[in-house]
From TrEMBL:
Reactions the enzyme catalyzes: UMP + diphosphate = 5-phospho-alpha-D-ribose 1-diphosphate + uracil
Top EC class, one word: transferase
Function per UniProt: Catalyzes the conversion of uracil and 5-phospho-alpha-D-ribose 1-diphosphate (PRPP) to UMP and diphosphate.
Keyword Cell division: no
Pfam families linked to this entry: UPRTase
Name of the protein in question: Uracil phosphoribosyltransferase
Similarity remark: Belongs to the UPRTase family.
Cofactor: Mg(2+)
Keywords for this protein: Allosteric enzyme, Glycosyltransferase, GTP-binding, Magnesium, Nucleotide-binding, Transferase
Gene3D superfamilies: 3.40.50.2020
Residues annotated as domain Phosphoribosyltransferase: 11-223
GO terms for MF: GTP binding; magnesium ion binding; uracil phosphoribosyltransferase activity
Amino acid sequence: MTIEDRGEAKVVTHALAKHTLTQLRSVETEQVAFRKGLVKLGRICGYEIIDGVMETAYETIQTPLTETTGERVVGMDDVVIINVLRAATPFVEGLLKAFPRARQGVISASRDESGGMDDAGEFDIEVDYVKLPEIHPEDTVIVADPMLATGSTMATVLEHVQEMGDPERLLVLAAVSAPEGLVRLNEQFPDVEILSVAIDDHLDEEGYIVPGLGDAGDRAFRTT
Ligand SMILES: O=P(O)(O)OC[C@H]1O[C@H](OP(=O)(O)OP(=O)(O)O)[C@H](O)[C@@H]1O
Ligand SMILES: O=c1cc[nH]c(=O)[nH]1
Ligand SMILES: [Mg+2]
């Protein structure tokens, strides 16, 4: 099993996930490699969710030669993936390789960085576009965003997602999380499972994760 429960979050410890995240962290990694790295990490995390979070069931099948027992992942057709624009777009592209039939939602939510963090360590969040599917009781919902910093964006997104229904599992998937964001989400959304490839050290005074990987959206989209 390459998912470890660290209390505040489950951590994806697969060697290829760590390797890929290290490439993403490096300042030498330019836009195309950065974007491809996020796609790759999304695919690895998708496979890890299948292996470490979802369940399998046995069933009898007929091969061309004989009847035998096979194993299938339960609920592959009941997966919903939410793309938090914009940095999650390549991450979600990778996740979709693991869950090609997922129903998808899109929400544009981003930090208003003009006023900085407030005294509580939070940002105002601008929500420009919301298109989420209905969520059913049997669903596994994965809300993907590579960066979980103060948790302001994800808290806003989760409020919108919860309005769409009550799924069997609600997962937040991040590449890098800060302790501050994990504390906030665990307090505000105790039933949400958080999965991250890394839990970093702290946030700097501008709300960036340290050591982190910088601004994921800017690096993937070549903006400043
Ligand atoms: O936990 P928080 O403090 O809310 O920070 C995390 C958010 O910041 C980044 O998005 P950003 O606002 O930079 O938007 P972008 O994806 O368009 O770059 C990131 O992709 C998260 O959505
Ligand atoms: O470190 C951070 C924090 C928020 N958003 C990012 O892209 N990076
Ligand atoms: Mg950004």
